[in-house]
Amino acid sequence: MTIIEKIISSHAGRAVAPGETVDMAIDVRAARDFGGANVVKNLRESNLAVADPAKTLFTFDCNPGGSDQGYAANQQVCRGFARESGVGLRDITAGIGTHIAIEEGLVGPGSTFVSTDSHANIMGAVCAFGQGMGDQDIAYAWASGKVWFKVPRSVKVVLRGRPGRHAAAKDIVLAMLRRLGAGGLLGSAAELYGEAVDALDLAERITVASMATEMGGIIALLPPNERILAECSERAGRDFEAIAADADAVYAETIEIDVEGLEPMIARPGHPEDAVPVSEVAGRKIDSVFIGSCTNGRIEDLRAAARVLDGRRVAPGVVLKVVPSTRRVWEQALEEGLIGELMAAGALVGNAGCGGCAAGQIGQNGPGEVTVSTGNRNFAGKQGKGEVYLASPATAAASALAGVIATAHEMPAEPVEFEAPRVDRAVAAVAAGSRAGGETKAEKPTVLRGRVWMIDRDHIDTDMIFHNRYLAITDPDEMGQYTFDNLEGWERFAEEARAGDIVVCRENFGCGSSRQQAVDCFKTLGVQVIVARSFGAIYERNAINAGMPLLVADLIGAGVESGTELSIDLESGRIAWSGGEMSGEPFSEVQMEIYQRGGLLV
Description:
By secondary structure, the chain is an alpha/beta fold. It is built from 19 helices and 25 strands.
């Protein structure tokens, strides 16, 4: 039998063969912060209890800080369920779930593990079964302690030769990707052999195993040597037995990959399998570097980066972000002085977790940004809106110092800086004159008429108007839909408002933060004017500068109902409606001038 067949057989209670579908027991069942709440939902809706809480746990690794409202809510659901059910919880300080399972000795050679994590097959590093699954699968595993699984075919991958002295484990797996492509291990359990494999320590095995997913593989299993067995047994406090394929095991295919003299590799943006020697893209100007992820966030990876940085600072204008994989790694890096060295080099060091590839912590990039990352995926949009190259920690650190893609042994003598912009002073002067003089525009109306919304509330803050979960939105056209969606009772305002409407509130409207979106969202909806007894000071300035009419008047309690047609004279401050009128504060000269221009910067 092959290794995967032995593991599944021992957990299915009978011998198995490729292609069979069997029920297999799962030793450790985990759910992450982004999928955990749905696991809870599935259990509750189906009235299922957890079969064995001692073998079950939540991990908060995608967004440990809960900086996104969705993640914060999911985490709290999971915490509540953990208290009720007794399942394990590795909260926001712990780090990446798969790494925790290995660190704590929950998993070792021959074990089985499932999680809501597509890189759960990282367990192949210790020759255990690991598989990422959806919320329903995980809920079933929690309730029954088992899952159905189709026994995969086994592929034998032999790495021939010894990599060059500058090559790291990441370079080995990128060479595998170049040879096998995105689907080269599709639906297969690979067993890795060769001198280069046997020489890998645990951290390096984690790097290689974590990218089996990018080759389409079910898992990449690295048979344990005595050193790996001893380490796993020490972490677990119990002995693990060696597991190996039988001499007469049958493989669907045997693949040989030449790694003799392998040099540092890098994957070009968009495709992890588009791997080439770093020398082919060396000199490409970069904006940022990310070191971390489940592929390269171990203490050994941080040491490799620190060795390259070696008391120097990153290139001017380049951003270096580092995320250790677990709290233990973070603490060890602190004890060894690595955190101080990284920060002295100019790095931002985040709390333990996944980092940028999960879109929940530091490591994301913006449009046009060029990043060298130690992650496992560089699909378009996966780590942000820019271009992402995949490389080893040493290559990433060297690129941060150089300001361009470079290897640790071939860096430019001086960092490559961004070119200073060329300013055409004549053009700039013309542009400045144009802004100062301005063009003659048709005057905007100073008497506004429209349907009124009467909102009888004081102190409506900017989070009620435009919640902070939307602050990354910069396109005004997208802002209107979120107006008042955090103001209790007015969540449907954006759906029901129409161009020309008028909003009336009580005191201190727009208190809170300085966010411009809280003004622009009304402009997007076509709201003509906001009337209140008073406005938050920053909000008032933001609105005036945006050319958004605000009028100070005490209209609440004047007998005006929502839906009434109002007429507002901005010059005189007069407000009139069928059956009544009153006076508010007229526009100041400055406010009127900015309103007529259409904004301070127009």
